[in-house]
Structures are given as structure tokens and as C-alpha cells.
Amino acid sequence: MVATSTTSKVSVRDLTIRYGQNAVLRNASFEIPENEIFGIIGPAGSGKTSFLRALNRMDEFTPGMSVDGSITLDGKDVQTWRNLYALRRRIGVVFPLPVGLPLSVYGNVALSPRLRGMKRPDLDDIVERCLRRAALWDEVKDRLDALGSLLSGGQQQRLTIARALSQEPDLLLLDEFSIAVDPVTTMRIEDVLKELKKEVTIVLVTNLVQQARRLASRTAFFLNGECVEVGETEELFTGTVQDQRTRDYVEGRFG
Amino acid sequence: MFERTELNARNDRTQALVKVLFGVMTVLLALPVLIILGMLVVRGGPMISWEFLTADPTNGMTEGGIYPALVGTIWLVSVALLISVPIGIAAALYLSEYARDTWMTRAINLAIINLAGVPSIVHALFGVGAFVLFFKFGTSILAASLTLAIMTLPVVIVATRESLQAVPHEFREACWNMGATRWQTIRRIVLPNSISGILTGVILEVSRTAGETAPIMFTGAAMFLPFLPQSVMDQTMALSLHLFAISTQVTDVPEELPYGVALVLIGLVLALNAVSIGFRTWLRGRKKW
Q1: What is the pTM of this model?
Q2: What domains does chain B contain, in order, with CATH numbers?
């Protein structure tokens, strides 16, 4: 057992993820430090999303998915976590395409607190606080009762961020959040993330290497189910890399 | 280059022919419905009066009204609904939201499909064996409604499961990711967005049981019983059996009487359907994605 450093939020050891016989991630090991943005870059099919699903224990809902090795959150192995619902509440997830639940703007953000048994007026407070932190409050404060799915794409993505924040997570997973969002909104969300990392550890999975460069202090490069390299983000771009494929990828020579 | 070729002309002729053919088929399809309804209204319409609906049959069922049969049918269908809807919805929720894809669930799904294919007379005999004799409910509304309920269960399950599956899977994923349990996800997201489909599907299909004759014939419906049932342990008359009786078992029935009864029966079913379609339209207006 390797001792985990005290500042590691998440430790990944020899992680292998399979769907049936097909391994989508093999023997990955890396550390995600606390209160930082940790980037994961790599082309499609490299195992990035599967890692997020394993971290959130979504294997429970995914027939055929199996996880070997260990992922620890605050030193506790998520595989042996007893109360998975409590585990998932600590981890907020934002999907590539915004999933506006068929509820009002208010209802979307209030859902998680409601599941924890929170009632008004505490609910009003947390909804406003989360919408403000997601930089959406000013745009929706007059139509909290409107359906979430009536908002624009960029607003919906910030709504899902507000919804993730309403879980009061200490770990926030963003899976290619900017795929359906215009560049201006992307920049606004990136500013939000820079604010958030003071309180929350963020894992940013992205196809855009420049986005990782702008936001992430450390970055992992996944390729075809292999964790090729992990290091200081700037190192991957300008410093010495251990594996030439990393430099080729970040400089856009393939992928 | 753009001249019409023989091939173009042939394609056009085929196209026109096929269109006419399919159109004729569609009209032929509607024809029996129109003829049935037309006959019923023309010949049975004059029979319908307030008295016809609210009076007991008299003179060996050749005169008078159909009140006990009308009330009896409403009893039978309501009790059958009360039994099959909760069980069917619960089973569909389990199959759609909880069950993993194992040989067990496959076997259950197969059993449901097969149950739907069992002829109603077989259901009737099962009802006699199980409810009338084994559970000793006697010939009663309870036994007849249980038989009807078992017959309609597959339909309720399939209609419910389809409505549940129509709710996008990503809604469930988003909810689970938040730490919601399966039940919280069902209760907060899945059910509110499928309940319209469930209820209308169920009402639409179950209203058909109003017309069933075989399953109730031996289990709880009586040919002639000019009293209203007092409880579910009583026997009752029913419109469908009444129609069967005056059409085939009783002599000297005025020719128009069966048409009147049939019109009331079909009117009852159509009224139920209209309610459920109206309800669905109203709920769809509130659909949230």
C-alpha cells in the first residue's frame, strides 16, 4: 500500500476499467491534489469518461462494467464505500450535453437539497447561492419557475453546474462541459471554475488542450485506455515530457 | 439530359398505382367501423331513453330497461381496474427500473407476453377454478373482476413499461449522479413524466374489458338478476352478457332491443376512451421536455 500524501484528494492506483472483456482503461495511477483543477486530456475513447464513472461508482447502474485497482477519496477506497448515495452527493457531475431535468429552474437546483430533506426557506437560500456561484442568477432570477429546458444551451450548462453545486460537493467532475457551449459562455464558465477551485477540487475532462492549459494546474494525458503521462500542465506544453506522444498530442500533431 | 425516359414513366405509373392501392386499403379499414356505428345508431338510437337506462328489464327481458346490467358492468370494470392497475404498475416499475437483464426477467417478460395471448375463455375457466372454487369467492363480482384483472394485467404492464421507457435515460443518470436512490429518481423524475402515458394507456386498454363476456360468464355475471349488487360478493348482470342473452337465449325479443343494448355498451367504452384521450391531451400540454 502506497502512502497517500495528505494533500491528495483522490488517489488512483493501478486502475483498470472493463466493459465485459473490453478494457477501456488499464493500470492508471495518479494523484489529484486538493483544491486544484486537475485536467484530463485525450482523444475520444481514451477512457476519460469511464474514469469519472468509476469515481462516482456509476458501475452500479452500468451492466457489465467492472473496476479493478483502487480509487480513494480522502483516503477511503470508493469500491468499499458503504453508502454510495452519500458518496455521490459529495461528487458533483456536469455532463457534455446539459441535462436539464424536466423541472423548473428552481426545481433543478433545489432537487438535491430536497432529496436531503431540506425545506423552504433554506431551500431559497441555497438555490440563490448556487445560481450566483454558477454566474446564472442575474439572468434567471425573474423566471425561476420557467422550465429549465427553456433556457439557452449555455445557460442550461451553467444551470447544471448550479445543480451540481447544490449537492455541496467537495469534488466537481466536469466532462467536456464546453462541447455545446459558445466560446463567450465557455470563458464565463472557466472564470466560475477558477473561483470555485478555492473551495472545491475540480476534475476537468476536456478535448480542448488549450482549455486544460488555461485552467488545470496538473494534467493527465490518456490515450487508448492508457494513462500516458501526468504532470504540471505547463510542463506538458513547454517542458520536458517523458513520452513523445504527449507533446505530439498537445501540439495537435494527432488526435 | 432532362428528358423523360421510359424508366421515369414506369416509376411514375407504379408510384400512382401504389398510392391508390394503399389509400383504398385505408378506407376499407375504416368502413366496418362506420357501418357498425351507423347501424347501431340508426337501429338502436330510438331505443335510448332515460327510462331505458334506468329501468329494470321486465317480461322475460323482452321489455323494460337495462339498469342492473349497466350498473353491473361499471362495477365489474371498476373493481377489475382497482386490482390490475396497482399490481400492473408496480410490476412494470420493477421490470423497467429495478430488474437487471437476467434469464429470470426474460422469462417473466415472456410469461407476460404469453399471458396476453391466452384466449379469454381459458381465463374464464381459470377464474372458475381459482377464484370461484379454490378461494371460495363463489360466483361474485370479486371473482369475475379478478378474472378480468388477470386478463388485462399484461396490457397494463406493457403500456406502463412503454411510458416509463419513454422518459430519457439521461434524466435517470443525472439524478443517480446526484446521489438519488432509484426510488427517489422514480418518484421525482420518472413517474411525474410518465404518469399521463400510464393512466391513459391503462384506461384505454382496460375499457375494452367492458365488452368481455366469456371471463365473467361463469365467474360472476348472471343472465337475469333484476337487483343491484350490494357488495363485491354478489352476482350481477352485465351489459355484454345481457346482450348475449337477449340475442341468443331469449325468444320474442323485439328486433331493436339488442341494438339499443349494444349502443349503450359501445357508448360506455367510447366515453371512457374520450375521457382518457382528453386527459392525455391535457397532460401533454404540461409535458416538460
Answers
A1: 0.79
A2: 68-279 (1.10.3720.10)
